[in-house]
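Figure S7 source data.
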Amino acid sequence: MNYQDVLQQDTIDPLAGKRREFVLPDNMIYLDGNSLGAMPIAAYERSRQVTEQQWGLNLIKGWNADDWIDLPTMVGEKIAPLLGAAPGQVICCDSTSVNLFKVLCSAVEMQQGRSVVVSQKDNFPADLYIAEGLSQLGQGDFCELKVFEGSGIEDQLDDTVALLMLTHVNFRTGKLHDIRKLTKAAHDKGILVIWDLAHSTGVLPLSLDEWGVDFAVGCGYKYLNGGPGAPAFIYAAERHHASIRQPLSGWMGHRAPFAFDENYTAAPGVQQFLCGTPPVLSMSVLDASLSVFENVDMQVLRTKSVALGELFIQLIADNDSLGELTLISPKKSSERGSQVALAHPEAYSICQALIERNVIADFRTPDVLRFGFAPLYLSHQDIWKAVHILADVMASKIYSDEKFSRVQKVT
Ligand SMILES: Cc1ncc(COP(=O)(O)O)c(C=O)c1O
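Tokens for the predicted pyridoxal-5'-phosphate complex:
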């Protein structure tokens, strides 16, 4: 594809106007929306409104006057359509890790007589840490974590297994799981499934209700553009609500928090996953950020995400200076999320050299360069320019400058 074709793609892009809803620095090509989404203008405006007017002037009256107390439910209901979830099944709260803990405990408890949690070795490590921590609680008899390597997930499923815990999009390679197929395979053996949707929500069409998913967790700061450390969410299928018992039984998950009962009675629906006071500032910002999805068809979003990924892979393959970079993402876009990963022994330094040139990608140990494609604010032209800058970095070997090898705390 030549530059004219690329420009042409932008002129017919149905989402091209969305970029104007974001604050993006001039001349920056931001290919890291899979780590931290860009800031919607609506988010910036809400942060001012919440601090200046709500907190500043209304103070504690804001809990009722500004609906702060209802934010977890309101934001959950805004995320629900992005998950293909009917109302009453999604709640916004805590971090993905904490939510995973709550959901894991509940799901294991629901599976009387089974205690094995199966997951994949290349799952996001934090998810495995949470499951490992849980498996060590008490005498270590609450659950047993079994981590397998490679494919063949179905072979791991037998009648000792309580739970299958997987991440939809692999954080390094972007490889996708088939949620519908694996959920069905697990259900056929009486196994519940928890999906981590951190890299899918807001960028892939999801149909959790239709696919029969039991539980899911995901975060607010990647493709939902909720800002650094934005709160996360839980999806719990309605059919499970009556059986849930989650251990972080904080007052916000109580049926009547302000009755100050001596004993805990869980709220009836997905609200029982709440624990403590909601982070009003960050949840308000996430609430506002979600407005960018109004009138966005997730299939259209996916079509653009695929086009950006394919363009990137094609341009890399066509450029002789980029032969040293190895594509480790699936080549077929139907098997890939919205990111492309390239491996190189000097990946860290290459990433730093790119960042210096205002192309923002990220590095994942040991040798992976990740490029994320957020279709709401990226153009085909951005991809073209980014690949040409990458080619320049590789051809000039500028990345071998010692300054690019200094490893920072956050990579
Ligand atoms: C796939 C996945 N799961 C879980 C997490 C952990 O999320 P948190 O730090 O919000 O708990 C992340 C963080 O990036 C992630 O990418």
